Amino acid sequence: MKHFRLFIALSLVVGLLSAALGASVAAQAPTATATPPYKPTPTRSATALPTAVVPAPLPTIVLAPSVPTATLAATAASPVAPVGEAAPAPEGANPLTGLPVSDPAVLQHRPILVKVSNYPAAVRPQHAIGRADHVWEHVIEGGATRLTAVYLTEDMLQIGSTRSARPIDTYLVPMYQGLLAYSGASIGTQQMLEAQPWADRIFWQKDDCPIFCRYDVGSDVDIWHTLFVNAAALREEAVARGIDGPVDLRGLTFSEEPPPGGAPAANLNLQYPATNSFWYYSPITDNYYRWQEGEPHHDAVGDRQLVFENVVLIYANHTESDIVEDEVGAGHHAMDIQIKGEGPAKIFRGGFVCEARWVAPEGGGMLRLADAAGNDIPLKPGRTWFYALPLDHTDLQIGQ
């Protein structure tokens, strides 16, 4: 009987130990789910990289974007008077901004155009796009957007991340008579660029560091988003090749006084197929501040929100080309965004929007912004963000 009671006791102990061990294993085992939980893309903090210029601090804008209250769409171009001769830029001023330059030698160079990634969200904040004189935003495959940032005032040491070129650059480079920097291009786009009469002014990843350098900008960023352009090194190489020098950039006009007849535009909300951006006008600074997909859009240089004096919408013909950009799904073709001839435009400045038309000089040269009578419409002195939009684009909301 004594041995039997001992056997029962040992059996109970073993049973308890087995149950406890089983529970432990079960607790460690993963629970199967039908679909993995959604995990939002983490917000990346700005990476400290050396810069050519330390930007001055700007006032913090704390007002949330308001609800848009009005909608405007591009209108077809009506018969208009031709524009006249371009006015000369003010002495000692950058013809792209209307602002005086601290060093007159700046005006003895070509602008540098850099292709900058704007997708996916992990590439933001980008480096030095807030220091560009002009930024062009345009659609790419899948409905996202890419940027072409234009620099004349400052040759920043890290611009990017830089990505591949697109057919729109065959219109923008002649417009600025500039130097083009990009990471690479599809076979068709590269052939198109190399066939241009200005093909000697293109720079891409083959030029390597110190012009194109890679930086560690975080483990959540894929390697193709880690390439940056050193504009100062590119400028030095362009001088060495004999392809830099002064060019005629007359075309845009500037005035502190806004043109008459504009409609109130306290903000604008613009939708592309796969992304959207929002601009809020601050009467405190008389500038527009940018949001991207619901979040303040920052520049990693100085970790400040993007702020521009002017936002201009350019409506142009968009045609799908036969250039294959990728083979995702059924494949995607490059969009030929034709910034040639003329078309409708909208100019946002000073809290107002005015209807305009853009005119691209035949054979190259700076874009003109004019009214129906052929008179130039002035921008506010400062930086300008351009959107290239299809002629039939209507997904624009303007808050008053």
Write up this protein.
A hairpin with a 5-residue loop joins strand 3 and strand 4 (145-151). With 400 residues, the chain is an alpha+beta fold. Residues 1-79 have low confidence and may be disordered. It has 4 helices and 24 strands. Strands 2, 3, 4, 6, 7, 10, 18, 19, 20, 21, 22 and 23 form a 12-stranded mixed beta sheet that branches. Strands 1, 11, 12, 13, 14, 17 and 24 form a 7-stranded antiparallel beta sheet that branches. It has one domain: YerB-like fold. The protein is globular.
Tell me the layout of helices and strands.
Layout: H1 2-28, E1 70-71, E2 112-117, E3 134-139, E4 145-151, E5 159-160, H2 169-176, E6 179-181, H3 187-194, E7 202-203, E8 212-214, E9 227-229, H4 231-241, E10 263-264, E11 267-271, E12 276-282, E13 287-292, E14 295-296, E15 298-299, E16 304-305, E17 307-308, E18 310-326, E19 332-338, E20 341-349, E21 352-360, E22 368-370, E23 384-390, E24 396-399
Parallel strand pairs: 2-6, 3-23, 6-7, 18-23
Antiparallel strand pairs: 1-24, 2-4, 3-4, 5-9, 8-9, 10-21, 11-12, 11-24, 12-13, 13-14, 13-17, 15-16, 18-19, 18-20, 20-21, 21-22
Summarize the structure.
By secondary structure, the protein is of the alpha+beta class. It contains 4 helices and 24 strands.
Counting DSSP E segments of at least 2 residues, the number of strands comes to 24
Q: Give the CATH topology.
A: YerB-like fold
Order of helices and strands: HEEEEEHEHEEEHEEEEEEEEEEEEEEE
* CA distance, first residue to last residue: 95 Å
Query: Approximately what portion of the residues adopt beta-strand conformation?
Result: 25-35%
The description of the largest β-sheet is: 12 strands, mixed
Helical content band: 10-25%
Number of domains: 1
CATH architecture: 3-Layer(bba) Sandwich
Whole-angstrom Rg: 27 Å
